[in-house]
Specification:
This is peroxidase. By secondary structure, the chain is mainly α. It has nine helices and two strands; from the N terminus they run H-H-H-E-H-H-E-H-H-H-H. The protein has helices at 20-24, 34-43, 48-55, 69-73, 87-94, 120-126, 133-140, 143-154, 156-171; strands at residues 62-64, 106-108. A two-stranded antiparallel sheet has the order 1-2. Helix 6 packs across helix 8 (143-154).
Length: 192
């Protein structure tokens, strides 16, 4: 997809089982406040720079209508849309994300270059076209993250460099040690 590469540390132990609830409990929700998102990252040993860099992964992928509908119709419970979202973009989104129904309809997180890993995500945030509230708050709720977003929008290589560092850091969160888990022979399956 054109993104950066990085050296993945080898020898990490994988779990012998999977847990959907365990895999999602520490991930910010699309409508979390900035402070909630930052707290979730900090609890994992990630800082504000990691937060902005790692959310840049939203330069590819999709989100379901149900993940951002409240921004289009009832952002603060007063029946009004989110005015931090570009209103022409919001009108475009409403065409396939109705007030009710269409929960599973998919939308590109980055409508500019949806299949290319680049810095368009940050440019979208500056243009008030961040699809998820958890994205847009990086540019509207905190001065430090606003500055980082601007830097990454202007300098793709800076974003790529930090993204790679933050991915390695994230990959080292709570490693299994001792007899826990296993080093897999094939990444996709538990050893026989």
């Amino acid at each position: 997809t054109g993104g950066p590469s990085w050296e993945v540390p080898l020898g990490r132990r994988d779990s012998l089982s999977a847990s959907l609830s365990g895999s999602t409990q520490n991930i910010p929700a699309p409508n979390n406040t900035f402070q909630t998102i930052l707290t979730k990252f900090k609890l994992q040993g990630l800082d504000i720079v990691d937060l902005v860099a790692l959310l840049g992964s939203h330069t590819i992928g999709n989100a379901r209508c149900t993940s951002f509908r409240q921004r289009l119709y009832n952002n603060t419970g007063n029946g009004q849309p989110d005015f931090s979202l570009d209103q022409s973009y919001a009108a475009q989104l409403r065409q396939n994300c109705p007030r009710s129904g269409g929960d599973q309809n998919l939308f590109f997180l980055d409508p500019v270059s949806p299949t290319k890993f680049d810095n368009s995500y940050y440019k979208n945030l500056i243009a008030k076209r961040g699809l998820l509230n958890s994205d847009e708050v990086l540019f509207t709720q905190n001065k430090q993250t606003m500055e980082i977003v601007t830097q990454y929008a202007e300098n793709q290589e800076l974003f790529f460099k930090q993204f790679a560092k933050s991915m390695v850091k994230m990959g080292n969160i709570n490693p299994l040690i001792g007899e826990s888990g296993q080093i897999r022979n094939t990444c996709r399956k538990v050893n026989s």
